[in-house]
Automatic annotation (TrEMBL):
Source organism superkingdom: Eukaryota
Protein name: Reverse transcriptase domain-containing protein
Domain Reverse transcriptase: from-to ranges: 1-111
BP terms from Gene Ontology: DNA biosynthetic process
InterPro entries linked: DNA/RNA_pol_sf (IPR043502), RT_dom (IPR000477)
Organism in which the protein naturally occurs: Diabrotica balteata
Length: 181
């Protein structure tokens, strides 16, 4: 049995290989290679050194998807740059544009244009507060031992907080927010 997601993944892999040849030497240089795309299921990130290369790679990627009956939803396409001082839209060659943004979420991690991780930390803290509100009855139940409550906290709350935390840049203010939770 072949699932739709498997078919999309297969098409995506074929598109990536074809696009890889066409986009050779473009993207972000990392050691001897160039990173130009990150893919997960139906989410894709395209990276480039400049707008010209980005527009070129988007054009090639869209062409490969169209060959296979897929289309890129431009309403859900966001553009994030670290170069400009203000956020603006990306004007593409085909008179279409991608919406500029300060930050976006990819695979549960909030990427921001200035490289700070505070939006992700704030998001995690909000998730923890919501979870603790939901677990309030359990955490204050006198019939549940303190040891069991600690295990629940360590297993669930800490895992929410520390997921992808290795990417965070921690300053004093963030450290105190995290410690308080």
């Amino acid at each position: 049995m072949l699932y739709i997601s498997d078919t999309i993944q297969e098409i995506s892999q074929t598109n990536i290989k074809t696009t890889e040849k066409k986009c050779e030497g473009r993207g972000i240089p990392i050691q001897d290679n160039f990173l130009y795309t990150l893919s997960f299921a139906d989410d894709q990130v395209v990276t480039a050194h400049d707008e010209e290369n980005l527009c070129y790679m988007l054009r090639k990627l869209e062409k490969e998807y169209t060959k296979n009956g897929l289309e890129i939803n431009l309403e859900n396409t966001e553009y994030l740059t670290t170069e400009q001082e203000s956020v603006r839209n990306l004007e593409r060659d085909d008179d279409r544009e991608s919406t500029g943004t300060e930050k976006f979420k990819y695979l549960g991690f909030i990427l921001s244009r200035n490289g700070i991780t505070e939006p992700d930390i704030i998001s995690r803290l909000a998730q923890i507060r919501t979870y603790i509100k939901q677990m309030n009855g359990v955490l204050w139940n006198r019939q549940i031992t303190r040891n069991t409550k600690k295990r629940i906290y360590n297993t669930l709350v800490r895992s929410i907080m520390t997921y992808r935390a290795e990417n965070w840049v921690i300053n004093k203010r963030n450290r105190s927010k995290i410690t308080a939770s």
